[in-house]
Amino acid sequence: MLRVFKSRFLRILSFTLCLALVPACERARAAAVPVTEPELEPVTLTLFTDEVLLFMEHPQLVAGESARFLAHFSVLADGAPVRAGRLTLEADAASGSPLRFTVGAPKRDGLFTPEGVFPTAGRYSARLILESDQASARIELGELVVHSDLTGAAMASGSAGEAEPPDSVPFLLEQQWKIGLRLQQARVRTLVARVPAPARAVTPQGLAGVVIPPLAGRLSASEERGLPRAGERVTAGEVLGYVEPPLGAAELAQLRALELEFDLRALEVERRLADASGRSSFAARQRERTQRLQGQGLRTQLDLEEAEQELLRAQSEEKAAGAAHAALERLHGERGPAGGGLRLALIAPIAGTVVEARGTLGEFVQSEDELFRIVDESTLWIEAKVSEFDLGRLGASLAAELVLDALPDQRLDLATLGRLVFSGGPVDPVSRTALVRFELPNPGVRLRAGMAGTIQLGTSRIQAVAIPEDAIVYERGRPSAYVMLTGELFQKRALSLGIRDGEYVEVLEGVVDGERVTTHGAYAVQMSSLSPAAFGPGHAH
């Protein structure tokens, strides 16, 4: 019985001692754990120039403490990181010497890390100066606040912390650089409401021609060139070949009589040309001599004027004789060789390209055969068929943009590059459309007759906030865009859209003027919002 009592007494005593020693144990355990300073929220800054995007992070600045700045640079034109160059951080205090922290190269692609100490607390006016082959920039950072101690820095850090907005999507710069993500600002633009209409390119009237022989006969080539082939250029009036019609005995006798008369006439014309050329040369020399003597006072002004009139008469006669001689030369080509049959010249009606050449040298051709087809492709007509229900919406000065099926990435402004030549006319009773025609210069023959496409005909102009069509992504058929809030944070915005004008779309709701939306790479940001783990871990500095 005594043994049991002693055992209970010892257990009670031990329990009482433990209760008494608990505060001391807790104090000893707390003393053994090291005290860590609270982690301060860093300062972030996102700024743009015409060439680069800057996303910078730096700790809360404390006087006398070393601070490292993490300056990320992206080239706006292609979304690439700045891979080489020199970066200087300049900071000016109200009193004291300016501070300059410089790094001669990025720590890695896109990241510069200038580091330094701010000796005194206060507000510093600061800027970054980037010098690189990819881009150059001078970026004003505003004021950097340097605290006197950690307490002030902790208070600033606590007030700077903010919750992320709804529908935000983190997307690190390393991910942006990998896909070449690009941005564009939403801006107020002049947009044109347009009516679409099917269109095609056609050859204008007068810029296509065919060559048909006047009579049946044997096809022959000219002495200067062979028969033209498809793809060759010809000039208006050029002789492309000859047709030699068959002649009987009576026709040959008559032809020879005509040839004799032709030869006599040719001799007369050549004599006239020679005489006229001689008189013109003599008159020119006489005028020069009279002008020289008149300058010496040996001839009067009246003598000089008579000499000039004589020169003009002689030159006129020479020109007329030359024209007659040229006409005989052309007729000589149609005569054929001396003693042979008649040759009828095949003349190019227009200048252009031979697109079809069907005749064979020596072949007997008929008077209805189309031997050559020539097209001048320097100008095209773009014809559109507009629904009768849209005709009333078209303005007097018609804006038009053409997209051809074969060139979907090219938009041709027909009102600027060409001109409207026809609009209106009767409505086709079958298609219920009316014709609108533009004339479009075609330098270098970029376009071809027969090409099909769509014309967007302007109806009205408005001023509205617009973004590129590339910035719009669809989820379950609903349009949205991703707006950059900071360098590594985007927000999904549901959009209400208005009219489309070329590559731009009116935004009624969702994005405001000046905000930057993703264009190239927008779908990658969307996929990141659905599966963030698929885009890898964050970056390490």
Short description:
By secondary structure, the chain is of the alpha+beta class.
Describe the protein.
This protein is of the alpha+beta class. 27% of the residues lie in helices and 38% in strands. It is built from 7 helices and 34 strands. The strands form 8 sheets. Strands 14, 23, 24, 25, 26, 27, 28, 32 and 33 form a 9-stranded antiparallel β-sheet that branches. A 5-stranded mixed β-sheet has the order 3-11-10-6-7. Helix 4 (249-295) packs antiparallel against helix 5. The two termini are 73 Å apart. Residues 1-36 have low confidence and may be disordered.
What are the SSEs and their pairings?
Blueprint: H1 2-32, E1 43-48, E2 52-58, E3 61-62, E4 66-68, E5 70-75, E6 86-93, E7 99-103, E8 111-112, E9 115-117, E10 122-131, E11 136-147, H2 150-160, E12 168-170, H3 173-179, E13 183-185, E14 187-202, E15 208-211, E16 217-220, E17 233-234, E18 239-244, H4 249-295, H5 301-335, E19 344-347, E20 352-357, E21 364-365, E22 372-375, E23 379-387, E24 400-404, E25 407-413, H6 414-417, E26 419-424, E27 433-441, E28 452-468, E29 473-475, E30 478-486, E31 489-494, E32 496-501, E33 504-509, E34 516-518, H7 522-530
Parallel strand pairs: 3-11
Antiparallel strand pairs: 1-2, 2-5, 4-9, 5-8, 6-7, 6-10, 10-11, 12-31, 13-34, 14-23, 14-28, 15-22, 16-18, 16-21, 17-20, 18-19, 20-22, 23-27, 24-25, 24-28, 26-27, 28-33, 29-30, 30-31, 32-33
Helix pairs in contact: 4-5
